[in-house]
């Protein structure tokens, strides 16, 4: 059967309604039909943020000019899903099961649709995986941009025909977003309804049916064969058989008609879509490029190598920048040497990369690909952007220059302060994976899986309390990693991958494992640094028999492992006993040092 897109909108007219809805969707109260062994995912919003009621109040206070009316809809709950045929095509009846890749494709497409249509008005979206079929509850504060007032009616329609038209367009839009996944829109204007469970049981348990059953009860002394013959000869039973046959035939005709109507609807939609494309091709280039600036600035900042400030979540730091990003696609750099503001993804790329307009377009194409451009621009702008990307060379990564005069200081930091084994550090340096730059940073080289250098992670070593760390400008965080292989023979196939947060943690853990007799020495292991679930080589990891999530012992590490397990269900969590693996290595090193000192004393 064809998988269909599902979209419903519910009004939340009071803060009590908002709190009650959150209690269900955030699982703040017991949910009888939820599977407690499965974990839901917050697609939009952060875990540990204020309650939903406070978020709604804050959004209304910032974005509206006056207090809401008493009868205003304060928040709209949008329910998004697809029919079970999409999530489990082999057997839609297996409630609670789904294909992981299909589920993530649905979740990502739905998240993009929400962000493109509602922006920062969508203050939270919960992906529920603990019920029969994956679905999303998204909370949107319905603010009218023109009047600066709450208006659910303006956004979703009021009553009657206006609501039907707006909801129909909304369902068209959502179905178009899920179309590439093979999910279609239902038949427009369908009057199909769902029978309530209560009504069903009332019909089944109705008195006429019970009377029929009483009349056909076995008579005294009647054998089973005699009862069977009597039931067969009963005219009422014959009528029921004919009705059932008629019902089955009618259902087949109805299903066939629905399939034909759906095919006709898809044909009309394709015709309508082509007409829209033809109109879109005539849009001015400037209009298209203005739309391109609507890419989420948080995603662009992350790709540029910036990291969110843990204390001021709207600020992003790195590469000599302190950039504040606002909900209306504006940014401002507060760094004393870089003070400048702008709007949109192109301006942000030009500012951070110090490149021109064409260079920014080429960079966006390289990082976000065809999907990113298509999401932001219509047909003509897409063609022009591709032409620019084809003629303008993509900025290539230039690693920091090595400075051998600084190596001994960096080497001393790694081996004496961080207690990393000197022979391993020297071996990694000889392979070109670690070196020192002119700023006395330890440079950890990031490579693709086919060993193409496309990034570098820097760790400051100058001074006693140096905490500097970050990525070299131009690093591709989604296609390059610091990694090395150990154990077994160099020609052996990798059977185990251990994911770590930082290069020093990866080297520390490999050292700990090599000193443990219980560790199987013949297993060829890759230690790979991926500090975020966004930067994982997922397709490669799916081919590895054993994947271990060796992130640090903290809430951040646990959250990263939880998200990765959603993508790689077979992956196992591996925690250090202390805060991180380097601290565990150093604590284990102390008894070894005492033992060596005792041995030296005996020799003397």
TrEMBL record:
GO terms for biological process: DNA recombination. Residues 593-604 have a biased composition (Basic residues). One of its GO terms (molecular function) is DNA binding. Residues 567-604 are annotated as: Disordered. Residues 412-488 form the DUF3991 domain. Belongs to the plasmid mobilization pre family. This is DUF3991 domain-containing protein. It comes from Komarekiella delphini-convector SJRDD-AB1.
